[in-house]
Amino acid sequence: MSEMVPLQAVLSGRMPALPTEANGAGRRGCPLSDLRERLRRAGLRPTRQRLSLGWLLFGRGDRHLTAEMLYDEAMRAKVPVSLATVYNTLHQFTEAGLLRQLALDGSKAYFDTNPSEHHHFYLEEEGAVIDMPDCGITVDSLPEAPEGMEIAGVEVIVRLRRSRPAGRRTQG
Ligand SMILES: [Zn+2]
To answer: What span, in angstroms and rounded, lies between the C-alpha atoms of 58 and 48?
Structure first.
């Protein structure tokens, strides 16, 4: 990923010159117009708020965030949004297929900027989510789906905790 352009510069149209096809063969055009196009293709009107939050969400590669984490980033980037707007936008993006909501535990919803099927490590103590490497797991023995159903996908979450020092383990 290339370096992030400051959000304020993007939204005010003061984008620094980005490589175009003339001087950057094979490079994509302006990331903001990419984002606008991505929202439109997903059936969402590219409003200023969606663009601001989309910029924070999708500008840094694959990530896993809660609404609170994105809200904190928005505050730091001086994007004027409420937590409720962040929630709504995350759910709209999820319904449009741009994000995937992860079922980790009941208390906090995590959203994945990579909506394709993949597996996760969940660090319970830190509440952090990490993508599992592609070769990390093979699910080759699944029960048959009930009559009239088919398996649409398999998501594995492996919960991690810090290993305890040897010798201090208790039985059972
Ligand atoms: Zn992920």
So the answer is: 15
User: Token pair of 42, please?
Assistant: 């997903």
Inside any domain, residue 80 = yes
Q: pLDDT tens, 45-56?
A: 999 999 999 999
Q: 85-109 pLDDT, tens per residue?
A: 999 999 999 999 999 999 777 678 8
C-alpha 76/C-alpha 124 separation (Å) is 26
Output the pTM of the full model: 0.72
More confident residue, 111 or 126: 111
Q: Ligand 1 center to residue 158 CA distance, Å?
A: 12
Query: Quick one: average pLDDT of 55-82?
Result: 94
Answer whether residue 170 is part of any domain.
no
| C-alpha 34 – ligand 1 centre gap (Å) | 22
Ligand 1 centroid from CA 69, angstroms: 16
Please identify which residue in the block is written with the tokens 């993007």.
Answer: 10
Kindly give the distance from the C-alpha atom of residue 64 to the centroid of ligand 1, in angstroms, as a whole number: 6
CATH number at residue 70: 1.10.10.10
Residue type, 160: L
C-alpha 60 – ligand 1 centre gap (Å): 13
Which tens digits make up the pLDDT trace of 147-160? 999 988 888 888 99
Number of domains in the chain: 1
CA of 91 to the centre of ligand 1 (A): 17
